[in-house]
Amino acid sequence: MQNLNVELNTINFIIFSLIIFYIIVRRLRPRKFRISRIYIWTIIYILLILFLAVQIRDLLILLSLPASGILGYILGLKILERREIRFFYKNGILYYKWPTSIIALWSGLFVIRLFLEFLLSKNIIILSVVDLLLSFSTGLIVSASIITVKRAKQFSV
After folding, report:
1. Is 20 helix (H, G, I), strand (E, B) or coil?
2. Is pLDDT above 60 for 2?
3. pLDDT tier at 8 (50, 70, 90 boundaries)?
4. Terminal CA-CA length for the chain
5. How many angstroms separate the CA atoms of 72 and 82, rounded?
6. Is 117 helix (H, G, I), strand (E, B) or coil?
7. Which of 30, 76, 117, 118 fits 140 for a cystine, CB–CB 3.0-4.6 Å?
8. Is the pLDDT of residue 144 over 90?
9. 156, exposed or middle or buried, with CB in 10 Å at 0-12, 13-18, 19+?
10. What is the per-residue pLDDT across 107-135, written as a single tens digit (0 to 9) for each?
11. Which own/partner contact pairs does 90-95 have at CB distance under 8 Å and 24+ positions apart?
């Protein structure tokens, strides 16, 4: 029975990893600017953090998650104010590209979290540390989303 659980977890991990890989590849390329897409993906990132945080029973860690996200948001505003988000027009359509580092950081942490969830460990300390880092990187993504929307308005005349 335990071998069946390990096999199912391995299959689930592979499926989720393929989905994440697809998202990573799409996010690393320039994307057509659509405000709805920015908001929807930002909400998805936040919901994923909340979904993963359900397992945490330690109140201090739970309270630290929003603080970590806020810290990531503030740092993201400082980092991205240097115009790290690129905009350009192609065939009259506005495109944007986020820094690879932000996408790679969040995606890497998410894959690590999935790996820990499905295959390796139920150690709550390790999961909590990864969740805190994931919350921080989600704060970076939220700041990138807000800056993207603000800067895109400059291109709309």
Report:
1. helix
2. no
3. low
4. 63
5. 16
6. helix
7. 76
8. yes
9. exposed
10. 889 888 888 877 666 777 888 889 999 99
11. 90/30, 93/32, 93/33, 94/32, 94/33, 94/152, 94/155, 94/156, 95/30, 95/31, 95/32, 95/33
Find out whether 131 and 117 touch, Cβ atoms under 8 Å: no
User: What DSSP letter does each residue of 20-59 carry, written as one string?
Assistant: HHHHHHHHHS-EE--HHHHHHHHHHHHHHHHHHHTT---H
In the beta sheet, which residues pair with residue 94? 89
The domain of 24 spans 2-155
Half-sphere exposure for 92 (CA within 13 Å, toward CB): 0
Find out whether 109 and 130 touch, Cβ atoms under 8 Å.
yes
Q: Tell me how many domains the chain contains.
A: 1
* Bridge partners for 95 per DSSP: 32, 88
- Whole-model pTM: value is 0.83
Catalogue the E-assigned strands of the chain.
Answer: 31-32, 86-90, 93-97
Per the CB < 8 A criterion, the answer to whether 155 and 117 are in contact is: no
